[in-house]
Design brief:
single chain; alpha+beta; 3-stranded antiparallel sheet
């Protein structure tokens, strides 16, 4: 029903996605957990890799494969993988985007990519 009114449903889960300019994360809460403790939820914990830092959010960074379509990795994994590619001198054909959220608000086709640094 898309008219602006919704019928009450008995959803099993509620999920939240925080797609931020700098950091992103997600959380999920089941109906059973909500009944027992409404402020508890499960959220993804992200590991930075090299520094072994554990956080509730990950950098909003996407590494796109050379085909220009497929996602290689996201967040800390994308930062770490891109660093490896740079060290191997193999990053040239990959697309590395960071802090790109606001660019998504532009009209389609109005995003310029800095080819040298692969940034929006």
């Amino acid at each position: 029903m898309l008219s602006g009114t919704r019928k009450a449903t008995k959803s099993l889960f509620v999920a939240a996605i925080d797609f931020g300019t700098t950091y992103s994360g997600w959380a999920i809460l089941s109906r059973g957990n909500f009944t027992d403790n409404p402020i508890s939820s499960f959220y993804k914990q992200w590991y930075s890799g090299y520094e072994a830092l554990m956080t509730d959010k990950t950098p909003t960074v996407a590494l796109i494969k050379p085909d220009g379509v497929s996602l290689e990795s996201f967040g800390y994994e994308a930062e770490n993988r891109y660093r490896e590619l740079l060290e191997e001198d193999a990053a040239g054909d990959y697309y590395y985007f960071q802090r790109f959220k606001m660019a998504l608000m532009k009209p389609f086709g109005d995003v310029s990519v800095n080819k040298r640094r692969n940034r929006v």
